[in-house]
């Protein structure tokens, strides 16, 4: 049994990153304390995967509306996997779920109910094992699995190289003329180990203007799963 990875001490991670990388240190000073720790308890494992599927290829505003409608349709008192499985195609369409995403949600529900995807065991899996388990579900690709690792499981050392937000943030922060290659990103991110998830959070934040409240050293806003600039899961198995 592999021991679950505990969330990092975000203050210690922040100090370590600032010592090791002066460019990232400037971003950290602008955006204040890391908000990753606020994300875990908003959703359980299953609910976060449902949310990730619903949010694919949609604006945050539209996806939030559809996600809320979906939850309103589910029968109360049932675990979410069972509740979603009871919804008809018409109910899913009324909530705004496309036919393709309805298939993804049904595949997720069936795998969880059948035990093919044991979400109770993911805490004790390695990062690679979690990615392998989740990407067997239709509609869940590596990006979604990495977001699950960072925001739900609070794994400290995940750097999602395929996320366009991360690519853009690195290019801007390090003043690169072209988008960085995978090898360049790996080299830049090497000093961030074992806190690459925390570094990723700050890179996403660097694409937003720093809040005046953050400048006054008040707590950082609650974290949210970032939207990739133009990349989304395109699994259609």
The name CATH uses for the topology of the largest domain is Endonuclease III, domain 1
Unreliable residue stretches = 215-223, 228-232
Shape, principal axes of CA atoms: elongated
Named CATH architecture of the largest domain = Orthogonal Bundle
Total domain units = 2
Structural class: mainly alpha
- Tally the beta strands: 0
Task: Specify the CATH homologous superfamily of the largest domain.
Answer: Hypothetical protein, domain 2
Radius of gyration, rounded?
18 Å
Oligomer: single chain
Largest sheet: none
Provide mean pLDDT, rounded: 86
- Helix and strand sequence: HHHHHHHHHHHHH
How many helix segments? 13
- In terms of DSSP E residues, the strand content is under 5%
The helix fraction, in percent, is 40-55%
Distance between the termini: 31 Å
Task: Determine and state the CATH class of the largest domain.
Answer: Mainly Alpha
Indicate the topology:
Blueprint: H1 10-20, H2 22-31, H3 45-55, H4 60-73, H5 80-85, H6 89-95, H7 99-114, H8 127-134, H9 142-152, H10 164-173, H11 182-189, H12 196-206, H13 212-215
Walkthrough of the structure:
The protein is mainly α. It has helices spanning 10-20, 22-31, 45-55, 60-73, 80-85, 89-95, 99-114, 127-134, 142-152, 164-173, 182-189, 196-206, 212-215. Helix 1 (10-20) crosses helix 2 (22-31), helix 2 crosses helix 12 (196-206) and helix 4 (60-73) runs antiparallel to helix 6. The protein is elongated and about 55 Å long. Residues 215-223 and 228-232 have low confidence and may be disordered.
């Amino acid at each position: 049994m592999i021991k679950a990875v505990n969330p990092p001490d975000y203050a210690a991670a922040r100090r370590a990153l600032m010592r090791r990388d002066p460019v990232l240190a400037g971003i950290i000073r602008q955006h204040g304390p890391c908000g990753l720790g606020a994300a875990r308890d908003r959703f359980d494992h299953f609910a976060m995967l449902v949310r990730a599927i619903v949010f694919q290829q949609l604006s945050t505003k539209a996806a939030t509306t559809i996600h809320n409608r979906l939850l309103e349709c589910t029968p109360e008192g049932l675990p979410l996997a069972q509740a979603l499985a009871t919804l008809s195609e018409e109910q899913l369409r009324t909530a705004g779920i496309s036919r393709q995403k309805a298939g993804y949600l049904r595949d997720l529900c069936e795998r969880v109910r059948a035990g093919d995807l044991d979400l109770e065991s993911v805490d004790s899996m390695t990062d690679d094992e979690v990615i392998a388990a989740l990407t067997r579900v239709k509609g869940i690709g590596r990006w979604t699995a990495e977001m699950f690792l960072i925001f739900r499981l609070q794994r400290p050392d995940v750097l999602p190289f395929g996320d366009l937000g991360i690519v853009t943030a690195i290019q801007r922060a390090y003043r690169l003329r072209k988008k960085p290659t995978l090898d360049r990103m790996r080299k830049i991110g090497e000093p961030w180990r074992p806190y690459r998830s925390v570094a990723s959070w700050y890179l996403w934040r660097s694409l937003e203007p720093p809040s005046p409240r953050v400048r006054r050293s008040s707590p950082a806003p609650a974290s949210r799963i970032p939207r990739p600039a133009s990349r989304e899961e395109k699994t259609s198995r």
